[in-house]
Amino acid sequence: MIQYFKYDEWNIIEENFDPSINKISESIFSIGNGYMGQRANFEEDFSGPSLKGSYIAGIYYPDKTRVGWWKNGYPEYFAKVLNSTNWIGISVKINDVILDLAKCMVKSFKRTLNMKEGYLERSFVACLPNGNEVKVVSKRFISVIRGEIGCIRYSVTPLNFEGEIEFTPYLDGSIVNEDSNYDESFWDEVSKKAELTEGYVMVKTKKLDFYICTYMTYEVTKNNKKITPNIDKYEKSKYISNTLTVDCNKNDEIVIYKYVANTSSRYYETSELVNVTKELSNKAKNDGFDKLFKEQINGWSKKWLESDVVIKGDIAAQQGIRFNIFQLNQTYTGEDATLNIGPKGFTGEKYGGCTYWDTEAYCIPFYLSTASQDVAKNLLIYRYKQLDKAIENAKKLGFNNGAALYPMVTMNGEECHNEWEITFEEIHRNGAIAYAIYNYVNYTGDKSYLEEYGLQVLISIARFWAQRVSFSNAKNKYVILGVTGPNEYENNVNNNWYTNRIATWCLEYAIEVIESVNIADPTKFDYIKEKLSFKDSEIEKWNDIIDNMYYPYNEDLDIFLQQDGYMDKEQVLVKDLDSTNIPLNQNWSWDRILRSCFIKQADVLQGLYFFEKDYDVATIKRNFEFYEPRTIHESSLSPCIHAILASKIGAHDKAYEMYLRTSRLDLDNYNNDTDDGCHITSMAGTWLSIVHGFGGLRVSNDKLILNPFIPTNWNSYSFKIIFRNTLLNISIASDSVRIENLTGTNIHLTVFNKDYTLHGNKTIIIAN
Ligand code: BGC
C-alpha cells in the first residue's frame, strides 16, 4: 500500500509529476457519465507512460478467441471493451517546440478530481527545451445532464516569453486497444470532415457494425476576449484537426474551449449520426462552457443528495467512500436496460465483457438504496432479456428442458470468457442472479416483478441446478462435482459448500415464487407455465435435491468445509507468509497457488453473508475465524464481505481494517494493478461495508432494520438511503442514532431490536 494522493474530503489531489505512476493516476482521475468515460490522459502530446482510454457504453468487439487447446463449448469470441476515438486531444507547440511533459522540466504540477462537482482539473508550469516557460490549466468534464457531451477548457499562459503558440485540437479514430492482438485496429473509417472551427470523424467497428460519430467545435479567447486566429485544417485516415496560431506576449492567457459530442448507432440511425452529432456539439458551444458547467454542478449535487456518506473524524475513510460512490455514479445510471457495470467501468480495458456476477452480488444493493427503483430493476431486466441466450448457452454444454446457465462474462447474453475452469465451472454465478431477484423484491416489495419477469428466470435457473447435481450412491446424497467456487484459487473441486448451498437455495426460492405467483395471478402463472412447458413434477425432483444435498463439513472445527479435501492442504495463515510473496498472483506459479490453502476471496463466507438469516452468530463467527486468516483478498470483491461479517460478529477492528482496504483499494493501489483501471464493481462493496456492515442495515418482512456501531476512531458517520420512496438520512454517533425522514411519507423501522414509526419530515434520535 502506498499513499499517492493527498487526503481531502471531496477531492483526489496529486501534487507531483511522477511519470512512473501516471497510468495509476489516469485510472483514478477518470471521468464518466454512464454513457461514456475517459481516462485522465493529457490533452497535449505526452510521450511518457500512458494508457490512452476513451470508452462508450455498450460498444465492444467480438475478438476471436485464441487458445492453445480448443475445448468443446468454448465461446467463439472474447468481447473487448473498445477504446474509441480520442476526443480530448489538443496538441500545443510553443515557438515551434511541442509541449510534452515527458520532455520538459516540470516546475509544478497538480491534478484534481473534484468529486462534488464532477470535473477533472490539471495545472502545471513547464519549462520547454527551448527555455520557454508556460503555465497550463485544463479543466474537463463529461456532462451528466447531456449524455453525449464532453467539454474542455484548456488555458496556456506564457511566463517568460513572447511569440507564437500553435494549438491543434483534433479527433483521432486510429485507436488501438492495449489488449488487441498484434496491435490490430478494430475500427474502419466511415467518413470525416475537417472544417474551419469544427469537424467530425465517423468510424465503425470491423465486426458488428457499431458506428461512432465524434464531432468537435471550439472557440478561442485571449485575455477573456474571443479571437479568430488563422486556421489550417487537416485530414488523414480516421483523423481531423485544425491548427491555429496565436501571437502572444508574456502573461497573455490563451484559452481554447473544446466541445465534443460522441454518438453511436446504438441510439441513432447511422444516416442521422453526423447531423445529430454536429447539432449536439454546436448546441454545447452556443450554450457555452459556463452554462454546461453549472448544469454539471447541479447534476452532481442531486446525485450526492441521494447517495452521500459523510464520515467525521477520519479523512482517509471519508475520501475513500466518496471516491467509490463517485465512480459508481459515473459508471452506471440505469436508464438503459441493455447496459451493465463492467468491473473496470470506463477506467480501463482489462476483463473484457461488461457483465459479471459482480453486478448481482455486489452492485444491486448499492443502486437499490441510492437511486430510483428502476435503476436496479433495469439491471435485473438486462438478465431477463438475455434468458434465451442463457438457455442456449446451457444447451451447448449439454443441458436441456429450458435449463439456463448465465454466462460468466457477457456483453449481449453470450458467453465470452474462455478459461475452462471459469467458463464451465464457476457456475455459482447463476445463483447470484437468482439472489438479486430476491434482494430486489425483498427491498422494494415489488412482487409484480416476479410475475412479469422474475419467475421465468428462476424456473430456468432451477432447472439448471436440477440437472447439474449428481446423485452419489457412496454418500447417498446429491453432490455437485467439478466446480470453481468464488475462490478462484481452487479449480475443479467437488462439493464447494457455497455452490451446493446456493444451488439448493435457488430451488427453494423458485418453489416459493411459483407458489406465490400462482396465488397472486393464476392466469399469469398459467401463461408462464405454458411458455416454459413447466410441469409440477419438476418440483418433486427439486424438493428431493433440497432434502438430500450434501454439504461438506468439518466436525472437529465445527465449520462448513470450503470443498471436499480442503483440510488435506497444508494449513498456513496469511500472517505467516513473508510479505515478498504478496500478491501471490504476481509472485507464485499458478500451480503453487492451486495447491496452497490460500483463499482469493470470500467463499464459504460469501454464503454466510447471503444466507445470514439461516445461521446463528456463533456459527458465522467460527467460520469467519477459520477462513479469514487464510484469505489473501486478492480479489477486490473480498474485503467488503469480510467487513460486513466482521461487523455482524462484533469484530469491529477487523471490520474497520477491511473497510479501509476496500475503500482505498485503488487510491492506495493495494493489489498493485490500478494502472489497468479501477475496480468499479467492488466499489459497491465498499458502500455495503458501511451501510450493511457498520450500519447493520437489513430489510426483513417489509421493514427496515438497523443495528449500527461506530468505528472507534470516527466521531460520527451518516448515510442516505431510499427505502420504498422514502429518503432517509441516518447518522450514527458514539452515543446516538439519528434518523431523519426527508420525505413526506411515514416509515416503520426497527433499531436495536425496537420498533419505531418515523413520520414524514420528522427526525428520531435513539440512544446508542
Ligand atoms: C474475481 C471474480 C470477479 C472478477 C471480476 C475476479 O478476480 O475472482 O469473482 O467476478 O474478478 O471482478
Topology:
Elements (H helix, E strand, L loop, with lengths): L10 E4 L7 H7 L2 E2 L3 E3 L15 E11 L12 E7 L6 E5 L2 E2 L6 E10 L4 E9 L5 E10 L6 E10 L4 E10 L14 E9 L2 E8 L5 E12 L2 E3 L2 E7 L2 E10 L5 E11 L8 H15 L1 H19 L1 E4 L2 H17 L26 H13 L2 H13 L1 H10 L23 H4 L5 H16 L3 H21 L1 E3 L4 E3 L17 H24 L1 H11 L4 H11 L5 E2 L4 E2 L23 H4 L2 H6 L8 H7 L6 H11 L10 H11 L3 H12 L16 H15 L3 E3 L2 E4 L9 E8 L2 E8 L2 E6 L5 E5 L2 E5 L4 E5 L1
Parallel strand pairs: 26-30
Antiparallel strand pairs: 1-8, 2-3, 3-4, 4-5, 6-7, 6-12, 8-9, 9-10, 10-11, 11-19, 12-18, 13-14, 14-15, 15-16, 15-19, 17-18, 20-27, 21-22, 23-24, 25-26, 27-28, 28-29, 29-32, 30-31
Helix pairs in contact: 4-20, 5-6, 5-9, 5-20, 6-9, 6-10, 9-10, 9-11, 10-11, 10-12, 11-12, 11-13, 11-16, 16-18, 17-18, 18-19, 18-20, 19-20
This protein binds beta-D-glucopyranose.
Beta-D-glucopyranose binds next to loops.
Q: What do the pLDDT scores average to? A: 96
Task: Please give the share of residues in helix.
Answer: 25-40%
Q: Please summarize the sheet with the most strands.
A: 10 strands, antiparallel
Q: Care to count the β-strands?
A: 32
User: What is the highest CATH level, the class of the domain at 11-305?
Assistant: Mainly Beta
Counting helices, strands and paired strands, the structural category is alpha+beta
Overall shape: globular
By CATH, the topology of the domain at 11-305 is: Beta-galactosidase, Chain A, domain 5
Radius of gyration using CA atoms only: 27 Å
Distance between termini? 35 Å
Q: Helix tally?
A: 20
Bound molecules: beta-D-glucopyranose
What is the beta-strand fraction?
Answer: 25-35%
The CATH homologous superfamily of the domain at 11-305 is named Glycoside hydrolase, family 65, N-terminal domain
Name given to the CATH architecture of the domain at 11-305: Distorted Sandwich
Q: What low-confidence regions span 5 or more consecutive residues with pLDDT below 50?
A: none
